[in-house]
């Protein structure tokens, strides 16, 4: 670099955060657009429970799996290219759904493979999450990453709750096909805008310009504190070799996986255990989903002030309390609602705190760590509901309450893991200098 005090990179952290968040929101909403078609397909296709379940879960499954390689790609290529690829694939998925219903208004079992394929493509939008985490991290210094990452993830995670409210109204006002055409157009416009205005962090811009990169000078000139390894597979390998990555993955398995699981579980919970109407059950679920997402933003600011470790500890204590309240009541609506909102508070804060710790524990492999934590952690959304379903099968209707024992056990285990993590981290910090070398 010719002048260590001059930053030649374009854009700014705030602008980059805005475009990355919009891309994640759009990708997540694209997956939400896939959900409503399952009920329509069930009416016209002769599908058993397994095939129906596969069709319903394929977007989330593929989105979770793709988080690992695409998150790691950021360390090599920056975030813009992976985001555009994933956003483009999600747009193709929405376009495919629209085309299928236009050509076959009453789909039959012969159309199943096509809907499965387009569901897989819609799921690509979820994977934008693990691309955005390192992309934002490379723009911000560590002391500001908690709030930046929480804003990114919290606002992006509003998509399912908002879309669950907006989409039915759009279908009534515009019609089914027109609503999906509208959303495809919105995705396409955003794809173009991201391609035009989003910029990668200064390190990647300097690399593209052929400017020699000195990390210290880059910090002085552009404020970029973290510098990637530059190798996607090396990033994954380095992150996977650190046991703390797996501790964070377990935490995220419970907090974000639990968030996904409860957005699926709560409508049935409220309608079956408390006999609420479907509309009321949906509103209560939306209250949980939107609250958890917004609380994630607040959790990021608190994690910046108090540290991610303290927020993780407090969060899982709250999850235990909320789960206990929901497990012990089968008749008190107020107690169950209080438990649900305490769960939203605990999970929202935990989601923010975990990703506050990712760049702290893996500063040279943020992309790989974000992919592992975000990708494998999201599988909690597929593992937890069947475990809760076992209680319903065993205890009948009261099993909808007893199912929250799953969260009690998992969260207590997380607290044990946290104690080990905290003690080992403290021991590492207090090692004599000669032992660290």
Count of distinct structural domains: 2
Treating each run of at least 4 consecutive H or I residues as one helix, how many helices? 21
Strands, count: 0
Name the CATH architecture of the largest domain: Up-down Bundle
CATH class value of the largest domain: Mainly Alpha
- Range of strand content: under 5%
Helix content: over 70%
What distance separates the N and C termini?
A: 31 Å
Q: Tell me the Rg in angstroms.
A: 22 Å
Keywords:
single chain, 437 residues, mainly alpha, Growth Hormone, Chain: A, 2 domains, 21 helices, 81% helix, disordered C terminus
What does this structure look like?
This protein is mainly α and 437 residues long. It has 2 domains: 1-228, Growth Hormone, Chain: A; 243-361 and 379-427, Growth Hormone, Chain: A (Up-down Bundle), CATH 1.20.1250.20. The chain has helices at 13-32, 37-44, 49-77, 80-103, 112-122, 128-139, 142-156, 158-174, 176-197, 202-209, 215-222, 232-240, 243-273, 278-306, 308-328, 333-361, 366-377, 380-395, 399-402, 405-429, 433-436. Helix 6 (128-139) runs antiparallel to helix 7 (142-156) and helix 13 (243-273) runs antiparallel to helix 14 (278-306). The two termini are 31 Å apart. Mean pLDDT is 85; it is low at 433-437.
């Amino acid at each position: 670099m010719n002048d260590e005090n001059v930053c030649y990179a374009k854009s700014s952290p705030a602008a980059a955060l805005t475009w990355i968040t919009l891309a994640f929101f759009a990708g997540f909403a694209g997956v939400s657009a896939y959900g409503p078609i399952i009920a329509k397909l069930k009416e016209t296709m002769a599908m058993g429970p397994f095939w129906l379940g596969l069709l319903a879960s394929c977007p989330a499954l593929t989105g979770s799996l793709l988080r690992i390689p695409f998150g790691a790609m950021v360390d090599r290529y920056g975030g813009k290219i992976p985001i555009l690829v994933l956003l483009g694939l999600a747009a193709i998925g929405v376009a495919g759904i629209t085309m299928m219903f236009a050509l076959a208004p009453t789909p039959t079992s012969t159309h199943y493979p096509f809907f499965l394929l387009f569901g897989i493509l819609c799921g690509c939008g979820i994977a934008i999450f693990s691309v955005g985490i390192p992309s934002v991290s490379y723009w911000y210094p560590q002391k500001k990453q908690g709030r930046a990452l929480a804003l990114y993830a919290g606002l992006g995670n509003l998509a399912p709750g908002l879309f669950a409210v907006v989409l039915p109204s759009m279908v009534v006002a515009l019609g089914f096909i027109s609503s999906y055409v509208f959303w495809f157009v919105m995705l396409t416009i955003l794809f173009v805008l991201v391609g035009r205005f989003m910029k990668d962090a200064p390190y990647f811009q300097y690399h593209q310009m052929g400017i020699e990169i000195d990390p210290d000078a880059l910090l002085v000139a552009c404020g970029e504190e973290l510098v990637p390894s530059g190798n996607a597979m090396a990033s994954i390998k380095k992150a996977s070799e650190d046991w703390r990555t797996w501790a964070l993955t377990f935490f995220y398995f419970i907090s974000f996986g639990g968030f996904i699981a409860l957005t699926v579980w709560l409508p049935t919970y409220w309608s079956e255990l408390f006999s609420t109407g479907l509309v009321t059950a949906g509103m209560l679920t939306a209250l949980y989903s939107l609250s958890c997402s917004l609380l994630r933003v607040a959790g990021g600011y608190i994690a910046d002030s108090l540290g991610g470790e303290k927020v993780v500890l407090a969060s899982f204590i709250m999850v235990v309390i909320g789960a206990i309240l929901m497990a012990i009541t089968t008749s008190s609506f107020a107690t169950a609602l209080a438990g649900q909102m305490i769960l939203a508070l605990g999970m929202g804060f935990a989601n923010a705190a975990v990703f506050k710790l990712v760049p702290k524990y893996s500063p040279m492999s943020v992309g790989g760590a974000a992919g592992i934590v975000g990708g494998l952690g999201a599988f909690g959304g597929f593992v937890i509901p069947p475990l809760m379903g076992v209680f319903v099968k065993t205890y009948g209707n009261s099993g909808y309450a007893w199912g929250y024992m799953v969260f009690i056990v998992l969260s207590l285990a997380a607290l044990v893991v946290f104690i080990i993590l905290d003690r080992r981290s403290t021991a590492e910090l207090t090692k004599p200098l000669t032992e660290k070398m």
